[in-house]
Design brief:
Layout lengths: L1 H7 L2 H13 L19 H8 L4 H19 L4 H4 L1 H11 L3 H11 L5 H22 L19 H31 L4 H21 L4 E12 L8 H14 L8 E4 L12 H14 L2 E9 L6 E9 L2 E8 L13 H4 L22 E2 L5 E6 L6 H9 L4 E6 L9 H16 L3 E5 L5 E3 L16 E11 L3 H5 L2 H22 L26
Parallel strand pairs: 1-2, 2-3, 7-8, 8-9
Antiparallel strand pairs: 1-11, 3-4, 4-5, 6-7, 9-10
Helix pairs in contact: 2-3, 2-4, 3-4, 3-9, 4-6, 4-7, 7-8, 8-9, 8-10, 8-17, 9-10, 9-15, 14-15
Length: 524
């Protein structure tokens, strides 16, 4: 043990160990999907920061752990951004520095039961603050939120309808803290067990209390996934393949046909021949076709990614321009400073333009849909906004063809389960090259996934629902509560620092002792 402590005393060895510990939660996400591992994956990281010799070292443990976490969850970006992926992970990993300090502040040494109980609230709140900051799309967006690892767990999806993915992240971190206390602090096992029991009780209460979406019908939605098409004139050949696949839907009585992101590489105003071909498909199938145009617009400067609805008479006029773009993939933040990223990877050579507002489309058959494009499905506020605006079905058009042989397609497809559960609205995730997936209003899977090797169509009987979930009604209340907890902690710390120290009273002088002469000394 002493030898290990000496080995751990090296700053670089400790930093490497922190990065490895921070990377462990990656196994809870797809493709591995070891959802249960999320509840213990943070324990090594917590124990490492807890035993940091100083507060500064705990900050470093948090930073390097955050680097490991971000690099692991986004490792599939390495072929595109190369060394810049490491730079981004290091910058964003710094957000966990204060969290590492909090771990040491509450769990170092032999913490009292009261301090451990407080840690069960403050440390998850600190984690949520980190997720809130990095959820800003300019910093990469909320990809890899810890609560998203619970996308296939029915009780967790019920909790998502109450407090969104934020509530799941809070509870997952709280369980990790409780397990770490059980392992390392024997004197505080009672509050740790109480925390686990409280988590189980909250989950059970939500299962019973949270309103369930009221299923009121079904709609038939067809997903067209052409598969990987590259090489010369890939845009035209992809369109031809999508046209062929869509024509196979004739006679299947579908209510809507959905193509994936960048399914049309030409502005339909400048290519009326393509608009006429899509309109002809709409007439043959008997349903509108939602395509996604990735092209320079004729009526505005710049390149847009737009969901465009085409009916039997051509484009209906319903159009949604993507609002939240992928950093480096679709634009480069502060291009004048970071433009060198284009020289080391596949960063965007030209910034795409943003839309200004979300759109709910009426596609006939009494169906209103809310489109999202690509990684916009990672933002819970966007699907919540569409649900509040009356969307009956959430539609995501995506393409992860650049990351075809990585964990990214499965991770992206899994996000639809959370957005469906949060809003009580079904989610259709349609892609060019897989994985395409559909989820019901409770987040449950509907029909088969279309994998990355599929070039096909699939018709889904999608259950529709009514009612409003607590998350749609009250929004990100777990985040607000976490910020209040952190504000109270900071206020307490500040008050303690400003409190005047009571000076110790000066020691009183000892009484003067006089020596009284004995009679013998004054004698004769």
């Amino acid at each position: 043990m002493q030898r290990f402590d000496r080995w751990l005393g090296s700053p670089w060895r400790r930093s490497v160990l922190a990065a490895l510990a921070g990377a462990l939660p990656m196994f809870a996400f797809p493709t591995p999907s070891l959802w249960w591992f999320a509840y213990v994956a943070l324990v090594p990281w917590i124990l490492l920061a807890r035993c940091a010799p100083t507060g500064r070292r705990a900050v470093c443990d948090g930073w390097f752990g955050g680097l490991g976490f971000m690099l692991a969850v986004h490792h599939w970006l390495l072929p595109s951004l190369h060394v810049f992926t490491l730079v981004l992970a290091a910058l964003l990993g710094a957000l966990w520095g204060p969290w590492g300090w909090l771990v040491r502040r509450f769990l170092a040494g032999l913490p009292s039961p009261g301090r451990c109980a407080a840690a069960l609230v403050v440390l998850p709140s600190g984690w949520l603050a980190v997720e809130l900051v990095r959820s800003w799309q300019g910093l990469g967006g909320p990809w890899g939120m810890l609560g998203a690892s619970q996308w296939q767990v029915a009780p967790a999806l019920r909790l998502a309808s109450v407090g969104g993915v934020w509530l799941l992240s809070f509870l997952v971190v709280a369980v990790n803290v409780a397990v770490a206390v059980l392992v390392a602090v024997r004197a505080a096992r009672v509050p740790a067990l109480a925390g686990l029991v409280a988590t189980a009780a909250a989950t059970s209460a939500a299962w019973v209390w949270a309103p369930r979406p009221g299923v009121d019908g079904h709609v038939r939605i067809a997903v067209v996934q052409p598969g990987l098409v590259d090489g010369t004139e890939s845009g035209q050949r992809r369109f031809d393949r999508e046209e062929q696949l869509t024509r196979s839907l004739v006679g299947q009585h579908v209510d809507l046909v959905v193509w994936g992101e960048s399914s049309v590489g030409f502005d339909l105003t400048e290519r009326p021949d393509l608009a006429r071909r899509i309109a002809a498909l709409s007439r043959e199938v008997g349903a509108d076709v939602l395509v996604n145009v990735d092209a320079r617009r004729a009526d505005r400067p710049g390149i847009f990614k737009s969901s465009v609805l085409v009916g039997p008479n051509g484009p209906t006029g319903d159009r949604y321009d993507k609002m939240r773009l992928v950093p480096f993939g679709e634009y480069i933040p502060a291009r004048s400073v970071l433009g060198w990223a284009t020289s080391v990877g596949k960063a965007a050579g030209e910034d795409r333009r943003r839309g200004s507002e979300q759109v709910v489309m009426d596609v006939g058959h009494g169906l209103r849909v809310g489109p999202l494009v690509c990684f916009e499905t990672a933002f819970p506020d966007m699907s919540r906004h569409l649900a509040r605006d009356g969307a009956g079905v959430l539609l995501a058009q995506s393409s992860t063809s650049t990351f075809q042989h990585s964990w990214a397609p499965e991770q992206h497809a899994s996000l639809g389960a959370l957005r469906a559960a949060e809003t009580g609205r079904p989610m259709v995730h349609a892609t060019l090259t897989g994985v395409s997936a559909v989820y019901g209003p409770s987040g449950q899977r509907v029909g088969p996934w279309l994998g990355t090797d599929a070039s096909t169509t699939e018709v889904y009987d999608v259950p529709t629902a009514h009612g409003v979930t607590p998350y749609v009604r009250y929004g990100d209340w777990p985040v607000h509560a976490a910020l209040l907890v952190l504000a109270a902690f900071c206020a307490t710390q500040g008050a303690r620092a400003l409190r005047p120290r009571r000076s110790a009273p000066a020691p009183s002088a000892p009484p003067v002792r006089t020596v009284r002469a004995s009679p013998a000394r004054h004698g004769h």
